[in-house]
Amino acid sequence: MEVSQLRNIGIVGQGGGGKTSLAEAIIFSAGATTRQGRVADGTSVFDFEPEEVRRQQSLGTAFHHVAWKKHQITIVDTPGYANFLTDTLNCMRACTSIVLVMEPVAGGAKVEAERVWGRAEQLQLPRVAFVTKMDRENADFEGALRDISELLQGKPIPVQIPIGSAANFRGIIDLIRMRALTGKPDGSMTEQDIPAELADAAKAARERLMENVAEVDDALVEHYLENGELTQEQLLSALRQGIRGCRFIPVLCGSGLQNVGVPPLLDVIVDLLPSPAELGGFAGEDPRTADSVSREPTIDAPFSAFVFKTIVDPFAGKLSIFRVLSGQLHNDATVLNVNTDVRERIGHLLRLEGKKQEGITRVIAGEIAAVSKLKDTHSGNTLADEKAPIRYPGLLEVAPAISFAIEPKSKGDEEKATQAFHKLAEEDPTLRVQRDAQTKEIIISGIGQLHVEVAVERLKRKYGVEVELKAPKVPYKETIRGSAKSQGKYKKQSGGRGQYGDTWLEVQPLPRGGGFEFVNQIVGGVIPRQYIPAVEKGVREAMANGFLAGYEMVDVKVTLYDGSYHDVDSSEMAFKIAGSMGFKNAVGHAKPVLLEPIMAMEIAVPDDSMGDVIGDLNSRRGKVLGVEPKPGGQVIKAHVPMAEVLRYSPDLRSLTSGRGNFTMEFGHYEEVPPHLAEKIIKESQAAKATE
After folding, report:
1. Is residue 159 within 8 Å of residue 250, measured between CB atoms?
2. What does the pLDDT look like over 228-239, one tens digit per residue?
3. What domains, with CATH codes, occur in the chain?
4. Among residues of the chain, what percentage have pLDDT more than 70?
5. Which residues pair with 62 in a beta bridge?
6. What is the pLDDT of residues 241-282, one digit of tens each?
7. What b/e string do you get for 473-503 counting C-beta neighbours within 10 Å, with b at 16 or more?
């Protein structure tokens, strides 16, 4: 197999648009399977995870390969729902071209289609569109073309038009060869003359096709103006040139479920879409010098590959999926992980065929393959020849949008759950797991609620751990606004040796973020030096338990300035208790207040939703700091209390019809308004009373 005979085709689009059905039709038509799988009855080769079968939707990217016209085509079937779209955007790094799957209805293109389109633009991926479901009720081919033009800002050029629609859909007209193709149940197409009733429409559509594609070359424009016609070879050459330059998007049509129009799509993939050899070199950096370097997609170049996806199986171990960008790789080779500077031994190379794996002995530039049990290799890493290292840019990093606290159903499963979640997070970098130091909760964060729920389902199925999802506790803190002095005296004498510690403390507020400061101003030995650390320890323990509602106290300066001791009864324990008592007494007179975490947010929204989003932020006690323009909308920067945005993701989707997204990180702490603080304190005290 030569590099020029390879194609890696990403099947992309919005969720529920028919991508997997089209992918199933492709591998069936090409003879890679003997029966066309269907999502609805759970027989899909691509949607093989139990969660996918049950939900009837793709939750992760799957792979298969077919042979067509002596070419090897790797099909990359991607998820289209927003919760799992990051996997799609990252796996597009392995594609040489994409097929954008559209539904035949005006306004059918949703935000997910816009995002994959934008990613294709960013990666400069050649693309074609396939309008599927032409057999559905009210199918509208022209509506899909308008979506590509108006919503995606692309230039659609039909190279096919449908014969009929909805229940009357029976095939397509190939505008390049001007022939009609009608479908058969086995996926084959019968070629015939164009029906008389569609002859005029086909002629007009071909003229528009010639006018549009001729624009890629001045000589072609001149030829077309002089002759009023382009030859078939001229059309194909112009289409190849326009596709490679991302000048326009050829549009095909059919039905994935009924397997109509699929062989012509395979012809287009082979005849018009580029091979890895035609796309040029890949830029990276030399890890030794940080200089920019590149690799050409040829077999003779030094080996390099990019790991774009990881799958972790509790029994089979870790599977690293990569695309070879240059050179070639054989079984039992040793390569360098450039990111970790660790040598990795390649055991058995694998080609992925849905959930199955086929052993292979060699992969070359352009191919997608997998290898198991690499010890120190993760998604986003570069593998390369030790003698010619190169490091490629990593994967997209997408901040989680929603968090839950998890509580194992079985006692003692906390550690097991945490370890299992970390393995899931290795598969899915958008899944984050951490333990909140203050609330002591295990927090799992993801792109959306469905994303987290699916992770919990996999946790149970793969690792046998069941957990419940709960709203995370807000990590409130406490501080003081004023200064106060107080005595803390602990005296216990009832015969024999007793306990005695006497301290005088002053508490003062520090600036926000100032933490804790302990000052020793004892002079004259009124408290022996060896007892001073015990006083500080007592103060710290009291701060950890708070004064108002049991939350940690911060931003306080404590000064120990006087006290007394007893020669026999004083001890470190007595002074620790005295320090704690003195601190609590002083804080009670120093205007204690409750603090809440404030999140720094950036919310990207379309122009027509900006007013609604800002109004919603104001209702959440948010402070809008500014608005900056961006392509297609605005970015709102705001500070919002964490308690008000624990469930912000679904609300933003509702406000923006799914077109908004946001990032959020901890900013600082601010005082809770008195009426809310009173409620929080009462709830905390009630919870303690029931413990």
Report:
1. yes
2. 899 999 999 999
3. 3-197+248-278 (3.40.50.300), 282-384 (2.40.30.10), 410-424+433-470 (3.30.70), 478-543+553-590 (3.30.230.10), 594-676 (3.30.70.240)
4. 98
5. 77
6. 999 999 999 999 999 998 899 999 999 999 999 999 999 899
7. bbbbbbbbeeebbbebbbeeeeeeeebbbbb
